[in-house]
Amino acid sequence: MMLKKSPVKRTFGNERICRMCGVRKPLTDFYKNKSTSRKRDYICKLCDKEINRIRNHKLSCAVMGITLEQYDATLKKQNGRCAICQIKRRLIKDHNHITGKFRGLLCYSCNVRLGWYENRIDVVEKYRGN
Fold first, then answer.
1. How many angstroms separate the Cα of 113 from the Cα of each of 44, 89, 91, 121, 126?
2. pTM higher than 0.70 for the full model?
3. 10-63 adopts what CATH topology?
């Protein structure tokens, strides 16, 4: 996503054109920014949210040592479903807490349960009679 910079007028009374999406919106759809002429940002709140979502996604992939291409390949391999329950939900990047190695994509419920099980394996094994 590139910012659209041009000498074209972008503010009209109580409206402004977002430099990201190019849509004319009310000033209330832009975050406050004291350094701009109308005291509002040049990118609308929706575009700003999307920029931050993409930035956070890239950062979390980098922290786990995977590329966006590896993430996309895993998502495609799992058909957009949780690797454990196979339900289509919002997915979380699962990793081994000891090695930090990326294992796959899980829904929140399965990720929490797996984490609990891994941290309390002694209790589970004792219950199972092993």
1. 38, 16, 14, 12, 18
2. no
3. Wheat Germ Agglutinin (Isolectin 2); domain 1 (3.30.60)
